Amino acid sequence: MWNISLTAVPVLLELRNLVCERDERFLFAPLNARFYAGRVVQILGPNGSGKTTLLRILAGVSKDFYGDILWQAQPIANVAWEYANDLVYLGHLPGIKKSLTPLENLRWYAASQGGLADGELIHALAQLQLAGYEDTPCYRLSAGQLRRVALARLVFTRAKLWILDEPFTALDKSGVAQLEARLIAHTAAGGLALVTSHQDINVPDLHILNLLDFPAGFPLCCTGEDAAHG
Questions:
Q1: Quick one: three-class SS letters along the chain?
Q2: CB-based contact 67:31 (threshold 8 Å)
Q3: With 70 as the cut, is the pLDDT of residue 100 above it?
Q4: pLDDT tens digits, residue range 18-59?
Q5: By CB neighbour count within 10 A (0-12 exposed, 13-18 middle, 19+ buried), where does 84 fall?
Q6: b/e 164-193 (16+ beta carbons within 10 angstroms → b)
Q7: In angstroms, how far is CA 88 from the centroid of its own chain?
Q8: Are 64 and 138 in contact (CB under 8 A)?
Q9: Are 32 and 13 spatial neighbours (Cβ–Cβ below 8 Å)?
Q10: pLDDT of 205-223, one tens digit each?
């Protein structure tokens, strides 16, 4: 069992014998892992090892897996609504509708939390150095600015679990530092962040989950206890 524990720190997310397959092969051995509140966990592994697939599974985007995922000790199937509301997922692509403005995109995201006043959303954009771009169509923005629009969600989200796939892509040095500071603040408040990144992440007490530690060396017919690892 892979875990990063401290006494009295609650387990937010737990994986039990989690495996997934692509092109008739398993990407990694059954993954048993506990993720604790107050942690930034970097998911490592070479291209093709399953980093993005793992994040998509945990975000509920992909259902192609075997095993169990628990949120605060409950199977996610039993707490689907609570889990969805406690989760924010940013994938490889920024997930921005380019025909809309940054403010309109954030209104759409904020609607899932009951809506927020435009002033709060404009403040979020300003925090990401997008002041003055609130009403600019997103197709006119650079790749870095689009990434910042997506990351503005992290300013106002109340989600405990952040799943971020290459969030530093297209960010300049100041943008990287700002995101690192936001990760630190999130975990200091008891949140959990799972992050993939091809660059080093400069946060205190960074934890690593390397998928190379879970090599897939068994046939597709083997699942569950027959292929348990850890």
A1: CEECCCCCCCEEEEEEEEECEECCEECCCCEEEEEECCEEEEEECCCCCCHHHHHHHHCCCCCCCEEEEEECCEECCCCHHHHHHCEEEECCCCCCCCCCCHHHHHHHHHHHHCCCCHHHHHHHHHHCCCCCCCCCCHHHCCHHHHHHHHHCHHHHCCCCEEEEECCCCCCCHHHHHHHHHHHHHHHHCCCEEEEECCCCCCCCCCEEEEHHHCCCCCCCCCCHHHHCCC
A2: yes
A3: yes
A4: 998 877 778 888 999 999 999 999 999 998 899 999 999 999
A5: middle
A6: bbbbbeebeeebbebbbebbbebbeeebbb
A7: 7
A8: no
A9: no
A10: 999 999 999 887 544 433 3
Neighbours of 48 (CB within 10 A): 12
CA dihedral 47, 39, 123, 99 (to 10 degrees): 30
What phi and psi values does residue 156 have, to the nearest 5 degrees? -115, -5
Q: Which amino acid, 203?
A: V
Calpha distance 193→211 (Å, rounded): 17
Tens digits of residue pLDDT in 133-144: 999 999 999 999
Write down the pTM of the prediction: 0.88
Report whether 180 contacts 203 (CB < 8 A): yes
The tokens for 198 are 């091809």
Q: Which candidate, 59, 70, 66, places its Cα nearest to that of 223?
A: 66
